[in-house]
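dude i think i finally got it to work??
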Amino acid sequence: MQIRGTLLCCLALLVLNVTTAVRAADADELPSRYDLRDTGILTPVKHQSDCGSCGEFAAVAITEALIAAATGDTVDLSEQQIVSCVPGCGCVSGCSTLDALRYIRDHGIAVETAFPYVNADTACVADLPTAYRITDVFSTTINTYPLVERIAIIKRTILEYGPVATNMVLYDDLGRYRGGVYTFDGRAAEMGGHWVVLVGWTDDPKSPSGGYWICRNSWGERWGESGYFNSAYGDVTGIDDFYIVYAAYTPAGSAPAEDSRDPGEQ
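look at this
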């Protein structure tokens, strides 16, 4: 969980470096249901506790999944390294998943046992053994598209790249979620911004929203549906209304690449 005002200031800067590399696709070409949990690449859901580290947890979840998809190895990487070592991150304000993934690309990340999570701001550990580095980091602006095209962009990105991170407005009714499809109840208090990972979707023409996203949270496996929740397309939380962040991983330590950007962007 993060302070919404601080997060929005950060996001206003981040939007300068976003990309529209993944274009809107015809929704009819995409499967009506897709779930990365069925592929076996997703690691167990972890718990950020009361540290505002949702962005860090989302970045690590994406990285672990990409490594599993590329190598077949299940790894447990250090969220604490990002909390403690990335400027601007930490338990009070947290940081964006985009910044966290850029750090993993540029500096690498250690395994959990090398720098265990302690749910607190601590000093960075020098000379950590770097276990993995992602190859590239991407972000795609989607808020200028109508909802049907935003949905298609996110779906195609998940199909092509794997799990994607997004930021949503967190209302306190999400804490009471136990199952089904979450929609803001119109009364719950706004708590701030919250990063989650989209791992799939289910289309449902009979529902008012037309379907829902399958979302990985960072509140442990005892919350929600074993750590996951379903969020209606186009919900007022803005879960599919701003931009998405994703990454690529190639084994054998490929050299870091620059973020993809729109043509002519500085």
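The chain has a mean pLDDT of 87.
im so relieved honestly
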